Amino acid sequence: MKKILLSLAVCAMVWPLSAQVIPDEVYKNLPFKMDKVPQPKFAKNEVSIKDFGAKADGLTLNTDAFAKAIDAVAKKGGGRVLVPQGLWLTGPIVFQSNINLHLERGAVILFSSDFTLYPLLKDVSFEGLDTRRCQSPISGKNLENVAITGQGVIDGNGGAWRPVKKGKLTEGQWKEKLASGGVLNEQKNTWWPSEAALRGSKNVVDQNVPAAKTDADYEAIKDYLRPVMVNFVKCKNVWLDGVTFQNSPAWNIHPLMCENLTVSNLIVRNPWYSQNGDGIDIESCKNIVVYNSSFDVGDDAICIKSGKNEDGRRRGIPTENLIVKGCLVYHGHGGFVVGSEMSGGVKNVTVSNCTFLGTDVGLRFKSTRGRGGVVENIWISDIDMMNIPAEPLLFDLFYGGKSAIEAREAGDKPDTQMKKVDETTPQFRNIFIKNVTCNGAERAMYFNGLPEMNVENVTVDNVVIKSKLGAEISESTNVKLTNIKIVPEKGEPLVVRKSKNVTLDGKPL
């Protein structure tokens, strides 16, 4: 009897969930073993940031008020930090364990464009590499039970951070950008927020990673080192629900090495031209559900990663046990994407009941030599697409850092010579795709594996695609196509090159 009374007392001290966030049917008939992802529970404590002097005038910097509110709730054992309706300007928000940052309807958290508020941090991972970056607007490390919930908006003020090419803006937008300050590169076709940011762009060793070595070197290009907006690292029981995340300096949401992650009912937005403007990048995480959320972004929308090259292989933590269901993607370089930073591996993933409307690529698998890592055991079903400028289904093992459209326009020619297979050779295998419809695409499908390591064991079943060009399968082994209808405007519906054991409705091609 005492045990029962104690349990009732504990339950009374915990915030109840307003509804079951993830329906049981999401977990039914999974092709791999995965328990339901536990959501964090919070003690029934609540404070408002207004209690600590916060002002919703869009002018007052409320960084201290957020910090004091979080600290006060944490000292009580956790609970809810309430952000009421209003426009709340702030610097970085750093989470503690057992904190639910809850935004009421009409609440807007706007992060300051004052770069001095975001100090450089060491031992940060960006684009899969160990490096330095500015502090993220929202961050937490080595925590348990953290959440961002509600119906408000979180805005990273990313337009102040991101470079923009002139050709991506209207004449009026370009004039407005020039009037905001900043500097132009020598060609005067790219706007940068400062001389430091432009300086950082001129000497990089790997895409966005600078060649800086000393503290002084990094400080001299600090403005170039844009942060991801939401960065939870090595956290357990993370829940993001209902909120709009928008206008991030770099990636929007970046959970890294987290366990038990629930992403539900989100709206994730960035301008279509935003450089590195990804929606969510799930990296080296375990036990994840992404459910009933929408994305309209400037780069990949729902992206799965696990580190890059030697840094990723040394970490050796795959992303595994992932469910993506019922999501909608508008603009993005890819709707659902694996890679290109997948050096720690990706396995046990199911994607279903999603809609992609105008993404450059629908289902995008990408990597390149040097990565290593294995992507395997991926099940995708019931995907509807329309107006896809490149391919609804793309395997590209010659990824060169550009979007599919940019690579096509540049006429990039990959090195197709056979190379030695070693730990740096990426592998994509055991991928099962069914029930896909696409009305409008450039090319129906493109499989482009490495000659030394083909894309292997891919099943595509019950697919209808209307496109300008047919499908092309190259450097692939054991590809099984069943009930495929491709309607190209010109050319053959399906071309197979340099591949082994490709069948269509049981017949070899």
Structure description:
With 509 residues, this protein is mainly β. Helix content is 12%, strand content 44%. The protein is built from seven helices and 42 strands. The strands form five sheets. It has a 23-stranded mixed sheet that branches. Strand 14 and strand 15 form a beta hairpin. It starts with a helix and ends with a strand. The N terminus is likely disordered.
Describe the protein's topology.
Blueprint: H1 2-12, E1 46-48, E2 57-61, H2 63-75, E3 79-83, E4 86-90, E5 93-94, E6 99-103, E7 107-111, E8 120-126, E9 129-134, E10 138-141, E11 144-150, E12 153-155, E13 164-165, H3 171-179, E14 183-184, E15 190-192, H4 195-201, E16 204-206, E17 209-210, H5 215-220, E18 230-233, E19 236-241, E20 244-246, E21 253-256, E22 259-264, E23 267-269, E24 280-283, E25 286-291, E26 294-296, E27 302-305, H6 309-315, E28 319-325, E29 328-329, E30 334-338, E31 346-357, E32 361-366, E33 374-388, E34 393-396, H7 404-410, E35 427-441, E36 445-448, E37 455-467, E38 471-474, E39 476-488, E40 494-497, E41 500-504, E42 507-508
Parallel strand pairs: 1-3, 2-4, 3-6, 4-7, 5-10, 6-11, 7-12, 10-18, 11-19, 12-20, 18-21, 19-22, 20-23, 21-24, 22-25, 23-26, 24-27, 25-28, 26-29, 27-30, 28-31, 29-31, 30-32, 31-33, 32-34, 33-35, 34-36, 35-37, 36-38, 37-39, 38-40, 39-41
Antiparallel strand pairs: 8-9, 13-15, 14-15, 16-17, 41-42
> Which structural class should the secondary elements be placed in?
mainly beta
- Shape category: globular
Rounded Rg: 23 Å
Number of helices: 7
Helicity level: 10-25%
Mean pLDDT: 94
Strand content: 35-45%
Number of strands: 42
N-to-C CA distance: 70 Å
* Largest sheet geometry: 23 strands, mixed
Q: Provide the low-confidence segments as ranges.
A: 1-12
